[in-house]
Amino acid sequence: MTDERRFDDLLREDAAALPPPAAGEINPWSMAMTRVLWGLGLITITLNFLYLDVILPAVGGLLLVLGFCTLRRENTPLRWCYILSLASLAVRGACIVLAALPVETGLAPAYVNIALLQVLYVCLWRGMVGVSRAAGEEKPAATAAGAMAVFYAVLTVLALIGVEGWLLVLPMLVLYILLLRSMVRLSRSLADTGYAITAAPVRLPDAAVLWGGLGVLLAAVLLAMFLGQRYPMDWHARDDAPQDETIRQQLLTKGFPSYVLDDLTAEEVSRMAGAVRVYRQVERLYSDTDYRTITTTHYMSDPDRPLVFDRTITDVDGEGERHYTYVYRVYDTLEQTMTHVAVELREQDGVRRYIYIHHLTYDTQPSPRLTEALELWPAYQFRDSWAPGGAVSGRLLCERSGGEQTAPFYSLTGGSHQITDIFGTRWEQQITALWTRPAHAAKIRAYVLYDALRGQDGWVIESWANYVCQTAPVYPFRDAAALWHSYGSDVYSLRQTAASGIRRISTKSSPSGLGRRGCSFFRHSLWRKPGSACDFTLS
Q1: CA distances (Å), 400 to each of 209, 237, 403, 439, in order?
Q2: Which conformational region is residue 525 in: left (phi greater than 0), alpha (psi within -120 to 50 degrees), or beta?
Q3: What are φ and ψ of residue 84, in 5° steps?
Q4: Closest Cα partner for 351 from 390, 392, 393, 381?
Q5: What's the mean pLDDT when you consider all of the chain?
Q6: What average pLDDT score do residues 23-46 get?
Q7: Which residues pair with 359 in a beta bridge?
Q8: Hey, which residues does 460 pair with through a beta bridge?
Q9: Cα–Cα distance between 107 and 59 in angstroms, integer?
Q10: Element (H, E) at 316
Q11: pTM here?
């Protein structure tokens, strides 16, 4: 045995023989157990407001590490508690940071952390039994620590099977607080017997570890929020197959917008072979924050420009006569142009197929560059006489690095979705595209195409396009569509447009009952931004 090892053993024997510290003196055992019990309480009891469900468990994990760091040389189970607390803190910290990123971690990290904490509770129980034995207890048991291990196992089972409700949560919370009090009594009883420890050496002060750890975690979360809340997009050079020239000319003749047709793939164009009619509608979306003011002496009750009345200025001349000047806000900063196209195909077995295209063009790119979404409420969402056709496609296009580039959406989903709001829970049909705009690009476009089947009574044509843009980073991460549907969220901008109207059948109808002449399309009233403009053409 070396001299240094012999000297350490002598110090331990002398420290064990010392009387308990006087009132007001710092006892390493009491301080360590206080941190451990506070840590267990903070990681188990969470409050789901003001981000306390993130802050308190992070503080609790650090307190566990600090407490078990002091106790790690007392016995083997407490040494394992220290190792397990470090592992749990690493898993918890990783989950906190990943929650700020657009990644799906699933439930695996939660299950791993649950298993680590369950083993930690068992090791704490065995460690407390060892401490009781070292303190001279005749029958060391540490019943309170064992009860906490059993309690956490039962709590885990109830959580996994989905049991919830205040009638169960409140008694469990009271029981857990009582167990923590029992652990405090156990810790104090061991300290009162004169049990003392030699704190394991550390390189950093406890305050530096606690605040430094929280600072590093906060910095990692902020970096993830401001640099990582963008979708990874697969941009590549555009290399489309040539479109069928016959179909293309037929569509252009019927009034299909050429700039929309140019962005479609050859496969999408081929679906529109045999088009009977083409409906198109253009919505110009102006900024609702950037405006200039003009004054005029004439009051305009229904201006035909993107004007919004602001205020009236009243002047009185020397003769006491009043003169009025009217101030208007001009919202003429064009941000996007939304083009709606509906192509009616030939009837087959009493059913007509319609292909809808919602095409978005950026005139001015919003800032910052985060997540964006285009959520469609398709024709079959509103009318029972319409049915899904089964085709959904779309992509992004832009000019970058001296050429045309394209990318699929990060996500393009369609089908029934469960919606829960103040009106209750219901199922709705939606098509949602998610993406992030490229940096240093021009002429950015995005479109979504889908088809719908119209029965004999489907006279109303209606398809909504909701463009949502995330305007600031959020924690935890939610994309633009989720922010729109989140209660109380205001870090998004919304543009709602629609292709909406009624097909009017003339008296000179075809034998199939569907008129080939006299077809018109009427706009329904819908929400628009200040200064937005709309025009519609039927060919």
Answers
A1: 47, 9, 6, 9
A2: beta
A3: -70, -35
A4: 390
A5: 81
A6: 78
A7: 339, 447
A8: 502
A9: 22
A10: strand 307-316
A11: 0.77
